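REQUEST FORM: STRUCTURE PREDICTION
Request ID: SP-0412
Submitted by: Lab K.M.
Chain count: 1
Length (residues): 194
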Amino acid sequence: MSRGVVVATRPDGPGAPAYHGPVHGIRSAPWLHPDIEVRSSAIAGQGLFALAPIEPGVTVASFGGRLVSDDQLLALFESSEYVDSLSLDKDLNLVMPGRSPNGYGNHSCDPNLWWEDPALLIARRRIMRDEEVTVDYATFTDDPEYAMECTCQSSVCRETVTGRDWERAELRLRYRAHWSPAIRRHFSSAERRT
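STATUS: Completed
RESULT:
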């Protein structure tokens, strides 16, 4: 159900706030690693960039906000120009406050971030200084009507990202268990454990 774009991970970097929340470990506000900043992007508009190297497994950002139902989220989409949201489960969505820096995370078909927990993204591989920090939108988008032209320019670029890309065998193999919960619920129990 998510139509907004967000980037998030478990806060464990310098200055990271405590990570406690009542539902799904969700915090009330987003958090972004202090070595990440918003800059102009060759992929699209603004993007997130590393100010220093970030090692694999390090938390880069955390989603935070308020939890709403699908009906409440649809009402927000109808009444707002832009809504940063993330589908967590059936009829459970996270809506971020305003336009947080996390919302500038761009898509790549070969991203350097992937999901660790319901609202956390971690470094998938070593991220170099000045490298754009990206996530594959297919790992959290399951709206069958969603389609976006891709401009990531990676060697594995799919050219179009859709809300059905989670069905692609090569992506399931590449990301293994590193999908948002909303996508993982589509997988068999055996796939969710790997």
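NOTES: The longest helix spans residues 70-79.
Reviewed by: T.R.
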